[in-house]
Design brief:
heterodimer, A: 448 residues, alpha/beta, Aspartate Aminotransferase, domain 1, Aspartate Aminotransferase, domain 2, 2 domains, 7-stranded mixed beta sheet, 4-stranded antiparallel beta sheet, B: 522 residues, 33% helix
């Protein structure tokens, strides 16, 4: 077997050193009733590299990749171009096959890019400190609510109806089992929701998304003031991090915690994961943050170096008193984010955002020419909602049959709400082309 | 062009290893600034077209001013991160015996197949008719996981081991709620040797954690466990093989006793690599167990993630599995998402979308490459290698417990008694010998613990050199004259010991122009 270096001769010599007659003797603590005589039944034997590759190509052949079809899907995961050097860099074995930098003397590579990552996250969000990443945006959002509960010692979170439905459900799930209340505002298709009146003395936080799930761009400055007046925190979620190249950052609106899905930068669609959650807050809340933190220090020779720090918040030290049960971060996805954002730089990141907005504007203008299609949004970044004259789900299926990946029917994420049946969410990034938009418009005209 | 080839002159031995260099670099060890200290306005690493002018629809919320991102060209970025990479130890470089982390070889085939356009470039919310191959792939992995563990169901979406723990313990809470016992069963038992995530998870869900002592053999004290069991107990969280690297030999009795009082058995599957293909946790009476795909099934650790932590569930807990899951109808696969009509009572949703697909792909490629025969052989080789390390070191270091061990060998620090050398010093000295240290000071039940997990990926010659190096270090420590040398270790790494107290006392978590290190140092 190509991955196993020990030969039968090695095994015999090693058993002799151990003083065992066979490897079975090493498993003698396993209760008799649980010992398998032979290998697990019903599973195939090992395969060569060629055979495995072939099997995966067969899986791949049964999917329609966005590279093969007009593509306008977003809803929390966005298709952007990732420079070749990003993927090269994350495949370097020194990064790929290293682990959590427990031994800082020989993991300065990982630690330094995490420090760069944390700095980049603070700059994009307009916040003071950031952690070394979360699993993804949705789990980061739930951790943000838990953190707000710790900071305020209150247990009622107010959730915007413009928050991504999956994020909302992840928060509701932690609320149910971790014992706090998540009050969800009604679905906010039009982007007109006002949550200020709903804040009360028990509110620990208000969770909003910008741009919202339906694409609206909002100013939350007044909401932030109202939160602070009531002793609550404002949590702003950003599922499309590229928007921060063009939009006023949440930090400038008064946000207390900002959580982003960072997938758009450096990380492909990957059918939903792994992604990378960005998590930023104000310095005064630093010690209530979940997750890993990387900090600057000096070594025995006085040279600058980096270490994991403030670990007394974490489970491996604090055990049942930890701020979170989280052990790792999304290290390699954070590296992809950092390398891509470094390639983009100030000018490239802003231009990328402009391009996205321009493409989405073009798509919005064109889609409004389709009879019966109504643009819901007054404002958007690279994604918006349209109302169709009939239910969106079968329309999307009919377009898929024509090999057009047309967007997400809102009903897929909110099946319990009949009022959203005709809504379709469409995104256009810098990867959108005329060659893709034309078939979408033509296809929509046909199937509507 | 190199014109010195073949010339023998000019080689001088000796010299001064501590001689300073003009640049501060040491040959291949290059001092590297932060990107923020390298960037220049006007540089970029991408060429993007000029955006067409459009009517702004940003609701008046256009960002004003600079973000503050540095500008670097592509060659600078590649050099920067390549230099940083060279400051890392990695599995690709050699023995990485970090106990409890299963640092095994990461095959590059797995990276290749994860990047096939028809797998890596798919949107999670594409129409299901356009992702049939992806859904089948997840279902295929699920089948392997269920079969290897002997469990009837699996929740695929948890993003990591700790997230899987959360999923499993939520399923237990859901089952208790269904029985009307959520308010009365508030205690979770966990051995003192448990991973920190176990008590952290249980506490987050409102359980009170009660530690169970270990017996003299490094296993759960069955009598103490039985005494702690009662109508208030929701579950036991138990790692098996345990964090001392030992199989819980009384596990069948443990699970029987736990079930007899109406509690559930959560198994922490972090150490599944030791037994995969030889023992099915389902045969031990486990109710749920997370599987760290990044450990047992070799998805790359990536500097601390991403991982994946699918959770296998018993028939009693399967109805509470979270959304989403894959359903096969004839020849077609669908995703059961929130709101889908189902028989069970799903506990909710743990994560956006369907889980860590990139990890599923790599894990399945690993599994198919090994097959049932190769997985069993891998487990046996991992266990044999750990026992070989333990047997080869037991006369100079002190094993914490009697063998045989499973996939990791645990030593305590009694062999360092009165030497002035601590576990930490010993570990740091390993760095100078070219090794990543073992896990230190964990599990907590052993004084100055050193937990060595060689995995199945090391050739015997490499294990032999590793063993010889540790023997030499142990003998040097015991000579009683080397404490200072140990305290000064490591000397040859990119950085020497770092001041962690300073980092925690004055946290600097980001670069700012004002904390430019060079300015501060001047």
């Amino acid at each position: 077997m190509r991955y196993l270096p020990l030969t039968d001769a090695d095994r015999r010599e090693m058993l002799a050193v151990v003083g065992a007659k066979s490897v079975d003797e090493l498993f003698r603590d396993v209760p008799l009733s649980a010992r398998l005589g032979a290998q697990v039944a019903g599973l195939p034997d090992h395969l060569g590299e060629l055979e495995v590759e072939r099997a995966f190509q067969e899986f791949a052949n049964r999917n329609v990749s966005p590279s093969q079809a007009p593509f306008f899907i977003g809803a929390g995961a966005y298709r952007h171009h990732v420079p070749a050097s990003v993927d090269y860099m994350i495949q370097r074995g020194e990064f790929l096959t290293s682990y959590t930098p427990y031994q800082p003397e020989i993991t300065q590579g990982t630690l330094q890019y995490l420090f760069e990552f944390q700095t980049q996250v603070t700059l994009l969000t307009g916040m003071e400190v950031a952690n070394a990443s979360m699993y993804d945006g949705s789990t980061g959002a739930a951790e943000a609510v838990l953190m707000a509960n710790r900071v305020t010692r209150r247990h009622k979170a107010l959730i915007s109806g413009g928050l991504h439905p999956h994020y909302r459900r992840v928060i509701e799930t932690t609320a149910k089992w971790e014992g706090y209340s998540a009050v969800v505002s009604k679905v906010d298709v039009e982007g007109l929701e006002d949550l200020i009146a709903a804040i009360d003395k028990d509110t620990s936080c208000v969770v909003v998304q910008n741009p919202s799930f339906f694409g609206h761009v909002r100013d939350f400055s007044k909401l932030a003031e109202a939160c602070h007046a009531a002793g609550a925190l404002l949590i702003v979620v950003v599922t499309e991090v590229v928007s921060l190249g063009l939009l006023k950052p949440p930090g400038e609106m008064g946000a207390d915690i900002v959580v982003c899905e960072g997938q758009s930068i450096g990380n492909g669609l990957g059918f939903g994961g792994p992604y990378v959650g960005l998590f930023a807050t104000k310095e005064k809340y630093m010690r209530q943050m979940p997750g890993r933190l990387c900090g600057e220090t000096v070594d025995a020779d006085g040279k600058r170096g980096f270490v994991l720090t403030l670990s007394t918040r974490e489970q491996h030290i604090r055990r049942e008193k930890a701020t979170s049960n989280i052990c790792t971060n999304a290290g390699l996805c954070a590296l992809a984010f950092t390398v891509h954002l470094t390639l983009l730089g100030e000018a490239g990141f802003k231009r990328l955002a402009e391009l996205n907005h321009a493409k989405a504007s073009e798509l919005a203008d064109r889609i409004e020419t389709v009879p019966g299609v109504q643009l819901v949004n007054q404002s958007f970044f690279n994604e918006f909602t349209v109302r169709l004259p009939k239910p969106a789900a079968p329309v999307v299926e009919a377009l898929a049959a024509r090999r057009i990946l047309a967007g997400v029917p809102v009903s897929r994420l909110l099946p319990e709400d009949p009022s959203v049946a005709n809504l379709l969410l469409l995104a256009a990034t810098e990867t959108a082309t005329e060659a893709g938009m034309a078939p979408l418009i033509a296809g929509l005209k046909e199937v509507l | 062009m190199d014109r010195s080839q073949g010339r023998t002159g000019g080689i001088v031995s000796g010299g001064a290893p501590d001689m300073p260099t003009f640049t501060g670099n040491r040959a291949l060890q290059i001092e590297e600034p932060l990107i923020f200290e390298l960037g220049q306005p006007g540089r970029t690493g991408v060429d993007l077209p000029e955006p067409p002018k459009v009517k702004d629809r940003l609701n008046g919320l256009r960002r004003a001013g600079e973000i503050g991102l540095p500008g670097l060209s592509e060659p600078q970025v590649v050099q920067h991160y390549t230099r940083l990479s060279q400051k890392n130890y990695a599995i690709d470089m050699g023995v990485y015996p970090l106990g409890s982390c299963t640092m095994k070889h990461n095959p590059r085939l797995n990276e290749k197949v994860a990047r096939l356009a028809g797998i890596g470039d798919l949107h999670p919310l594409q129409p299901q008719s356009t992702v049939q191959g992806a859904l089948e792939l997840i279902d295929r992995l699920a089948h392997w996981l269920k079969t290897l563990t002997g469990m009837p169901a699996v929740a695929m979406s948890p993003a990591a081991g700790a997230h899987g723990e959360m999923c499993g313990m939520m399923a237990i809470a859901a089952a208790l709620e269904a029985k009307g016992e959520r308010a009365t069963r508030k205690t979770v038992l966990a051995p003192e040797s448990a991973h920190g995530t176990n008590p952290a998870t249980a506490a987050a869900l409102g359980f009170t954690v009660k530690p169970i002592p270990a017996n003299g053999r490094g296993r759960v004290d069955l009598a103490a466990l039985k005494a702690a069991l009662g109508p208030d107990v929701a579950a036991i969280m138990l790692t098996n093989p345990n964090t001392c690297g030992l199989f819980e030999s009384e596990i069948v009795e443990i699970s029987k006793a736990v079930h007899e009082v109406g509690a559930y058995f959560y198994c922490d599957g972090a150490n599944f690599n030791a037994i995969v293909g030889r023992v099915r946790p389902g045969d031990l009476g486990v109710d749920c167990m997370h599987i760290n795909l990044h450990k047992t099934f070799s998805t790359p650790h990536g500097g601390g993630g991403p991982g994946a932590g699918p959770v296998v569930l018993s028939a009693a807990l399967a109805p509470y599995a979270p959304y989403p899951w894959i359903v096969k109808n004839g020849d077609a696969w669908t995703v059961a998402e929130d709101g889908a009509k189902v028989d069970g009572r799903p506990l909710g949703r743990l994560k956006a979308f369907h889980g860590q697909m990139g990890m599923f792909t790599r894990a399945l490629a690993y599994i198919m490459s090994h097959g049932a025969d190769g997985l069993k052989q891998a487990a046996e080789d991992a266990v044999l290698s750990a026992n070989y390390v333990m047997a080869s070191l037991k006369d100079v270091m002190t094993p914490a417990f009697e063998g045989p061990c499973m996939h990791e060998a645990l030593f305590d620090d009694s062999f360092l008694k009165d030497t002035g050398v601590s576990t930490l010093d010993f570990a740091k000295a390993m760095i100078d010998e070219g090794y990543h240290p073992m896990t230190m000071y964990f599990p907590l039940v052993v004084h100055g613990a050193m937990l060595i997990e060689p995995t199945e990926s090391q050739a015997k010659e490499d294990l032999d050199l590793f063993i010889a190096a540790l023997r030499a270090l142990a003998e040097k420590a015991k000579s009683g004259t080397a404490a200072e040398a140990f305290k000064a270790a490591p000397r040859f790494s990119p950085r020497r010991r770092l001041d962690e107290t300073l980092a925690a006392r004055k946290p600097v978590l980001r670069w700012r122009p004002s904390n430019d290190f060079k300015q501060a140092a001047e």
